[in-house]
Amino acid sequence: MRNALVGGALFAFLALATSVAAEELGASSAKFWSAPQVDALPYDAHGRLIRLGRDLITATYAHIGPDMPNRAQRFAGNNLACGNCHLDAGVKKFGLPIFGVAADFPAYSARAGAEITLQERINSCMTRSMNGRPLPASSQSMRAIVAYVQFLSKGVRKGEKLSGLGAGTMPELDRAADPARGRDIYQARCLSCHNVDGAGVQNSLPGLGAGYAFPPLWGSDSFNDGAGMARLITAANFIHSNMPDGVDYLHPLLSPEEAWDVAALMISKPRPHRAGLEKDFPDLLQKPIDAPYGPYADGFSEKRHKYGPYGPIREKLKEIEKQKGEVSNPNVR
Ligand code: HEC
Ligand code: HEC
């Protein structure tokens, strides 16, 4: 009996030791996380299509931007590049990578309340983050972007979640994130690149499309209010893991608190408005807690959802979830 107990404890200790070692190994090998290499592809038709896809991510404005000489090629409504948010051409850990996601589509989208294809997911960034119009599924640009995302997802099985997806997580504040505090942080840590009034700095080489060396964070050439980056939690984590440009999630420069407040400043500023946002997330219980536009299932205000604190909203949502089934849920249309 005693032996069994000791044995059990020893086994538990060993298991713990191994899992710690595995985690350490995971953390250090994460530094060598590598995406399939586009540059190694042959210059055949498929290799060219994938390269075009990468170009569309890193210099979107030069291929489908609002200043294209040929009107028919104008799809994006702003001069951002997909890669301004999907960093390192979509392969940076916690830089909103688009690595390893192809097999997951078609996937249920809470925002649409329906299953969507990879093309539709891309178009959701086209119409929100890029403030533009959807690319036709059969267009060369869409086929190229899809080929690139599929290439980056080579060997990744459906349902397999690579570590590093999204923008990371950090502790939430127990107060509302504060744009006024964010202003000081912006002056100290962001203004040198993103410029006065968040306007960014354009590329200076003429003839190559009016993209940005430092993209705008708000104003008329930024993402619209229906974009993921217009949500506090997404924006704060993205900024914490990636900004000022050059930091990564292993070496953040801002404290979480600074990231929350400067993200609050960014989302408090004017940006293009997308019509029809009230139709997003038809099941309101699936609406992200930081969606900056109503309606909501929980009775908290738009401002509260925009800036937090989120603890009390989460509690309320849990209560509503518990009652679901007993009472009919008025929030499901
Ligand atoms: C302003 C920032 C921004 C820009 C610009 C942007 N996106 Fe996104 N994109 C996001 C955010 C935020 C998400 C949601 C990520 C998440 O759910 O973790 C996202 C999600 C995606 C996804 C789904 C990823 C997944 O994990 O399932 C794809 C694919 C995608 N974007 C492609 C594009 C393409 C292609 C472009 C350019 C045409 C683009 N995006 C431009 C911010 C942006
Ligand atoms: C050293 C210059 C630099 C500094 C400082 C900097 N950024 Fe950036 N930021 C960039 C660049 C460059 C990109 C686009 C990255 C790319 O294309 O690879 C970017 C992208 C972004 C994006 C996503 C794209 C967009 O237009 O919305 C956000 C949000 C952002 N920065 C916020 C911030 C915030 C907030 C700060 C201050 C805490 C900050 N940045 C500091 C250079 C900088």
Describe this structure in words.
- 37% of the residues are buried.
- By secondary structure, the protein is mostly helical.
- It contains twelve helices and four strands.
- The strands form two sheets. It has a two-stranded antiparallel sheet with strand order 1-2.
- It folds into three domains: 38-152, Cytochrome Bc1 Complex, Chain D, domain 2 (Orthogonal Bundle), CATH 1.10.760; 179-268, Cytochrome Bc1 Complex, Chain D, domain 2; 277-323, no CATH class.
- The protein has helices at residues 2-30, 45-58, 61-64, 87-90, 118-127, 140-152, 179-189, 191-194, 232-242, 256-268, 302-307, 311-323, and strands at 107-109, 114-116, 201-202, 212-214.
- The protein is globular and about 55 Å long.
- Helices cover 40% and strands 3% of the residues.
- Residues 1-31 and 327-333 have low confidence and may be disordered.
- β1 (107-109) and β2 (114-116) form a beta hairpin.
- One heme C is lined by residues 80, 83-85, 87, 189-190, 192-194, 214-217, 229, 238-239, 243-245, 254, 262, 266.
Largest sheet: 2 strands, antiparallel
Sketch the topology as an H/E string, one letter per element.
HHHHEEHHHHEEHHHH
CATH homologous superfamily placement of the largest domain = Cytochrome c-like domain
* Uncertain runs: 1-31, 327-333
Mean pLDDT: 89
Count of runs of 4 or more consecutive helical residues: 12
DSSP, total strands:
4
CATH architecture of the largest domain: Orthogonal Bundle
Give the CATH level 1 class of the largest domain.
Mainly Alpha
CATH fold-type name of the largest domain: Cytochrome Bc1 Complex, Chain D, domain 2
* Distance between the first and last residues' Cα: 60 Å
